[in-house]
Amino acid sequence: MVDRGLLYKEWKQHQALLLAIFFLLFLSTPLSIISEYFSYQGCLNNDNWNPRDCEFYLNYETGGSLQFFWAPGVLLAVAQLGIARSKGLLDFTLSLPYSRGRVFNTKFWMGSTMIVGAQLLGYLLSKLLIIFLKPGSVEFFDHFMIGSMIISFMAYALVMAAGALTGNIFAQLLTSFTVTILPFLILVLPALNLRVIIGRDLFWDRLPIVDSTIFQYMIPIIYVNPVWVMKSKYILLIPAAMSIVFYGIGYISFVKHASERSGSFFLWKQLDRPIQVFVIIAGILSFGYFGYGASESMIGYVFGMILGAVIGFFISYFAIYKKMKHL
Fold first, then answer.
1. Could you tell me the pTM of the whole model?
2. Which 8-state DSSP code applies to residue 138?
3. In total, how many domains does the chain have?
4. Which spans in the chain are helix H?
5. Where is the chain membrane-spanning (predicted)?
6. Which residue segment(s) compose the domain that 66 sits in?
7. Residue numbers of the chain with a pLDDT score lower than 50
8. Which of 12, 23, 55, 161 has the fewest CB within 10 Å, making it most exposed?
C-alpha cells in the first residue's frame, strides 16, 4: 500500500512544507492555552485590576486559536499534486517502478498522517496543559479538536481528489471550491429560481430540505465557519463520510486517468463538455436570481439570465479549453 522508498522520496521532496505544517498544527492550540494563562497571571499581578475580575477560561465556541485548520491540508495537497505536476516532478515519480495506486496512497497517507497526527499530538499536549494549569472552565474543547482533525482531513482529501482529476493548479483549486458549494448549486440555486417563477409563498415551504441542518452540513464550505462546534457531535459523521468518498474518487482518478502535465483543465476529456454546460446553467440561474433581486421584476430576471449565460460560456470556455503553461 505504502512503499518506504517512495515515502522517503516524498518526504525529502516536501520536507520543509511538511515540517512547517506539522509545527503549526501541533503548537497552535497549546501555545494559545499558555498565552491565555500568562494573560490571566498578568491580570492577577496588575495592581490596577481587581483579582475578582481576572478570569482564566477556555471557550472554543468560536473556533479557538486555529479557525483555519483546513488551510494547511489544502496547501499540502496542491503542493503534492498541482505543483508537482506543473514542475514535472510527478512525471518523474510515475517513471519510478511503482504502480499509480501506490504513488497516490503514499502521497495521501503521508499527508493525512502529518495533518491529523500533528493535531492529535497538539490535542494531547493541550489536555495535559489543561490538567496542569487548571482553567476555571473549558467549553467545547474536545468537540473542536476532534472536529478540526476530521474537517482538515476532509479538506485535504477533497483537494487531492481534485488534483487527481485536473491538470493544473488553477483547475485543482477551482474544482475544489466548486465541490465545496456543489449541493447549493444543485439544489438551492434551482429552488431559488423556482421561488421567483412560482412565487415565494407558494414554493419555499414545500422544500423543507433546504432549511434542514443535515442538508446544510452536507455543503463542505460550511465547515469553514466554526459554528459546527455548537452542534451535535454526530454532525462530524458527515465530513468523515465525505472524506472517504473524496479519497475513493481521488484514488480511482489517479489510477485510471493520465497524470502527465498536459496543462489541460480535466485529465478525463469526457468531463469537459458536461462541466461547461453545468457552468453555463449555474451562471444563468445565479445571475437570473440576482437580476430579479436587484430589480424586483421579471425583466431584470431575464436580463440577468442572458448575462449569466454569456459570462458562464466565456468563463467555462477559457478555463476548460485553454491549456495552462508549465512552470
1. 0.90
2. E
3. 1
4. 4-13, 15-44, 71-77, 84-86, 89-95, 100-133, 141-165, 169-180, 182-183, 189-198, 200-203, 213-216, 237-256, 272-295, 298-320
5. 16-40, 68-87, 108-132, 144-165, 177-198, 234-254, 275-292, 298-320
6. 4-169+227-262
7. none
8. 12
